[in-house]
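thread from #wetlab-drylab

HS: before we spend reagent money on co-crystallization trials with pyridoxal-5'-phosphate, can we at least see a predicted complex? here's what I'd submit
DV: go for it
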Amino acid sequence: MVKENLAEVRTRMKEACIRAGRSPEDVTLIAVSKTKPLSMLLEAYESGARDFGENKVQEILEKQPDMPSDARFHMIGHLQRNKVRQVIGKTVLIHSVDSLRLAEQIDSEAAKQALHVDILLEVNVAREESKYGFYMEEVEEALKKISQYSHITVKGLMTIAPFVENPEENRDIFKKLYQLFIDIKSKNIDNVTMSVLSMGMTGDYQVAIEEGSTMIRVGTGIFGAR
Ligand SMILES: *Cc1c(COP(=O)(O)O)cnc(C)c1O
């Protein structure tokens, strides 16, 4: 099942890239494996998946040691400051940096452990009360502050678009974040590379790709309902 689902997602990714005149290699698929057992992650691995998304530190700590060493884990959920110490070094990228205090905590723990940590800033484009993240107008100032932290590199931006019936309803959200991504990239802020734009989930990843996403986070579409 996982194998067939992955094949279908990859086909749809490719089609979206072609529609947008983009190269399929420019979009990374993250298999969001939260709540799913190791056996399913291994099944995805066997079918070529190497990037896995989790939203709980505990699950990363449990699964990561039992996966092949070239499997990469991405932290995509809200991260509490008191869990930072445990998770850095276990993940390739933290997508969900949603406050300056969290960025500061990551930098100081990274310094203690002599690590360098790649992060994305989470942006609440739709200004939903229920969601974490910076508002669009706060991003540049936050990046300027974070750029002074020497153990962090900001690789880009992430958003969780609203839950909608028709993915077209999120096109404008993706367009806005892409525009901000490009604007910030052109400012060449220290320690900020703006090479990753993490947007698109099972319901809307094709639209997200058409609007410039470089990483899509797909759970249900690969592993089934949670
Ligand atoms: C769960 C989750 C996903 C995947 O959601 P699906 O709709 O199952 O594809 C993507 N991003 C984040 C941040 C998540 O928490």
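DV: The first helix runs from residue 2 to 20.
HS: ok that's useful, forwarding to the group
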